[in-house]
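Re: beginner question about structure tokens

> Can someone show what the tokenized structure looks like for a real chain? I only ever see the sequence side.

Sure, here's an example I had lying around. Input first:
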Amino acid sequence: MKFPRLFVLFVTIASVSISCSSDDSGDGGGDPGAALVGTWVLTEINISAAIDTNNDGSTTSNLLTEVDCLRDTLTLTADNNWSSSGVFPSFISPITGNLYNVSCSPVINRSGTWGFSGSSLFLSGDFLATFLFDGSRLTLPIGNELPGLQSLVYERQ
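And the corresponding structure tokens:
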């Protein structure tokens, strides 16, 4: 009677396989995108050259330290939806020397769906973007010319 022995062997192998699946929260298994769920706040708007827009005599390449109206909050939900509400630079123009004028956009609300693969977060919907996730920060590389935007960086709130 080989059939019952094969059946028992199959059930044993199946039981071991199921009990060793990656449903334990301590082994890093499960949905790798779950670490992204939550609220992320814009902490850097990096530009290609340090400038002084607030005329305080100090230059920086992070516009958030120079322009008070800039901000954004990005929310990623467990059902793979995202939304954001922010104010971004709409125009950067040189004045004289190393001084620049930065105009702020009106509040921009966006939404859509998101996906995650490897270390890349993909947004689709009102805004198409690919962010890089390093475990603690989301970075959107842009790379425009002087004094253009180089990247946006978000950190978990």
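Each token stands for a local structural state, so reading them left to right follows the chain. The helical segments are 2-19.
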